[in-house]
């Protein structure tokens, strides 16, 4: 083929094909029309409508703009898999990339309009030229009418925002693009993010149902991982095989993982965020698994267990685990209505500090270690003891200190309790037999009217129970499933 006769573009992308009339005419015809329904998670639309009413009450007379956001670039022209902004999902039940919610103030409340980028259908140039919304690239997609019917909200094309007047001074969430803020004279609002976090702290019945699903699925995901331990050890597949096992499972039963899966064997277990997972699974080591399934509604679980890869803890591993369990139980006992948010943190820390002192690992008294000027025990537990849980693994992060840390717990709050001890392999302040041992226990708790429900209680927390549970799954790991 001569240079003169080559087609206008020969790569994987085809923008210059728009300049070839024969091609554009041919690709515009001969396609069947099969509308695709919008399928938000059951109950999401009604829950979102209720959430908008709650937000409306906090901002009378203010117009509000919240965006789903767009996927960040991974490399060159490849983006990460899109995951919608949590505030946007809470308010709409929609997970369309580039979507924007506008809540326009009116007497007594707000009118909600959802602006979506419509998919490019056959006959439109974008059908083959737009890799983000062209159906030739991404497959058939629901249209604006389908989303309006599914969500019971007014839906318009996102281009209609260009002609929309009266947005100057509207409150914009963090997810709204700088271009939109500048174009319409919106005002970034810390108060909007703070109030959304405060509202999201207390889950309604639908949200709690979603979190129950996420936690139950996560528990089964733990079992799937444990079944693969013998193979990971025997075949040298290592931590990453176990990480991939859980990730594949989470992507199958839900949207994926709620955060990057942590699998730490032996000396990697003390590393708080060991997400590289590029080490071996040691047959005689403790294995720390911090994992959570994110449901299709985007609500996530966050559960951690430290298990013996062999099925039996060593004396030293069990010694550390027993102290962490004691701290864990002390922390969970403080999760109930009327207690202050940080009570569980202090209760668990007191147990940890006393235990480390009894082992001779603190250079000061327990009281001095626990004092604001001390904190010596935090060398082995530098992170906090828990956090809110919901659409984000560290939920409601835009709330201010006084919004929750000095406030009392109330029914509907979902949170984690996760004490641990982390003795790094190169930490010369601990005896050699403890170096390289990391133990964390983490459960997800729902505050009820009378106390708390441990949503993740299908997994044992005591060392003997964990050994029995682990061996029951290791034993069946070679059986066909």
From TrEMBL:
CDD domains: Prolidase. Residues 46-185 form the Aminopeptidase P N-terminal domain. It comes from the Bacteria. InterPro entries: Aminopep_P_N, Creatin/AminoP/Spt16_N, Creatinase/aminopeptidase-like, Pept_M24, X-Pro_dipept-like. One of its GO terms (cellular component) is cytosol. It catalyses: Release of any N-terminal amino acid, including proline, that is linked to proline, even from a dipeptide or tripeptide. Pfam families: AMP_N, Peptidase_M24. Its EC number is 3.4.11.9. Its cofactor is Mn(2+). GO terms for biological process: proteolysis. Keywords: Aminopeptidase, Hydrolase, Manganese, Metal-binding, Protease. One of its GO terms (molecular function) is metalloaminopeptidase activity. Belongs to the peptidase M24B family. This is Xaa-Pro aminopeptidase. It comes from Glycomyces buryatensis.
